[in-house]
Amino acid sequence: MITSKINWEPNLEIPHIGFIGWIFGPFLGGLIADNPGFPVVFLSSSSFFLLSALLFSIGGLKRRLPEKREKLKPSRHMEAFKRVLTVKTAYTLYASVFTAWISTPAYYTFLPLFMTEKIETSKFLSSPAFSITPFAEVPAMLYLGSLSDRIGRRKVIALCLAAYPVRYMLTVFTGNPWVIIGAQLLHGLTFGGLYVVSVSYLSEAVDEDLKGLALSLYSINSGIARFLGNYFLGFLVDNYGFVTMYYAAALISAFSIPIFVLLSQRDAQGTHE
């Protein structure tokens, strides 16, 4: 299906590059944290960010911006927002992804603390829980994007959403760090597959002139959910502990599945399948 290939395949180029750093970064950070300590970790990270900004600016300065740009009136911006948010496919996806992403700090923020404080692993041993994820993301992006062409976007998105509570329950049920590390391979579904298929699903649902706005709102929606999730799950950790937090994350993310399925049933049958 040519449409799918155009929509999602080019987006893999930049993530492929980032995955290389994502693999080595946690190992390097874990080694530094175990030996010189956390202050050196933050100083090293800052240095890499500055280097990245410098390299980007060198390349960016060679590009010239168009001399003339169309000026859009605020009313046209508001009309564009309204058009996107009244598309059933768009607000259904936004609502379900928002619910799922409230739970993501359970991985991004609290997993290393859970491993080092609750089950008392070393900082270095907690690093593979992050560096292993790119090995699942790339194959998942390729396979699930192709699978969604055959069986439909909605079915694959529902599958990816279902992986969230499974991942959290596997994490909290075992005290074995290697099982926890293995459970993070589900990141291929919860991030890689969900992102690729959602982008295709969303871009097919809106008009050509709204694709950029629709995808921007997808990222903003996910970012807000993650921001709120950090505070909520952090509150649970401080007051009830890691185990309760992971159960809550599993429950919250599980709600994304009926939200997506029930709201999707209101759309015209067969539009994306």
Task: Explain how this protein is built.
It contains 15 helices and no strands. It has helices at residues 2-8, 13-34, 38-60, 74-85, 88-101, 105-108, 111-118, 123-126, 128-131, 133-151, 153-173, 177-183, 187-205, 211-240, 242-264. It has one domain (2-17, 74-264): MFS general substrate transporter like domains (Growth Hormone, Chain: A, Up-down Bundle). It is 79% helix and 0% strand. It has 273 residues and is mainly α.
Quick take:
By secondary structure, this protein is mainly alpha-helical. The protein is built from 15 helices and no strands.
Head-to-tail CA distance between termini? 12 Å
CATH topology: Growth Hormone, Chain: A
CATH C-level label: Mainly Alpha
CATH-level-2 architecture: Up-down Bundle
- The number of distinct structural domains comes to 1
Give the low-pLDDT segments.
1-15
Radius of gyration: 20 Å
Q: Characterize the largest beta sheet: strand count, sense, and whether it forms a barrel.
A: none
Question: How would you state the average pLDDT, rounded?
Answer: 81
Number of strands: 0
Q: Would you list the SSEs in sequence order as H and E? A: HHHHHHHHHHHHHHH
Report the total helices: 15
* Structural class by helix and strand composition: mainly alpha
Strand content: under 5%
Instruction: Identify the CATH homologous superfamily.
Output: MFS general substrate transporter like domains
